[in-house]
Sequence to fold (172 residues):
Amino acid sequence: MTTTQSAQEIFADGLRNAHAMEKQALSMIQPQLNRLEHYPEVSEMLERHYRETEVQIQRLDEILASMDTSASALKDLGLSISGSMAAMGHTIAGDEILKNSFANFAFENFEIASYTSLITVAELCGATSAVPLLQQNLEEEQRMATMLQDSLPLITRKFVSLSGSDNVRADI
Ligand code: MG
Ligand code: FE
Fold:
């Protein structure tokens, strides 16, 4: 790098990236809703987190609005991960429920890493009023990550049972 960034600039970039990340979260969750007839627990969990994510975006907007306009200009370019999620079809086919569950868990952990770093930058540049808002977002991601992990055995058992006895190997 030939240029140096102030902590303030790094914070502004981080906020814009977090905003794009949350938009990505919505577009990742949205196509999974209403397609989980066999997995109502997962459906409820995702619906709840969708609404939570909308509030997270409002918190980021609030922080960005308190900064100068050039810092708050949003790009929402999106992230490179999980781009294929939005392109999914209308029904859950095969082991998509498992793959989606892994991707959801991976995404929450990406968010946890982002907010952990962003809170540190906020502290470094003296953005003290932003810290509690970012902390709220972080705690919601941590709760969601834990719930997703806890749900994996149940989802997996249900997946195996719905797959029927045809797929069960008798030789093992
Ligand atoms: Mg989020
Ligand atoms: Fe999240």
Remarks:
- Confidence is low (pLDDT under 50) at residues 79-91, 168-172.
- DSSP finds five helices and no strands in the chain.
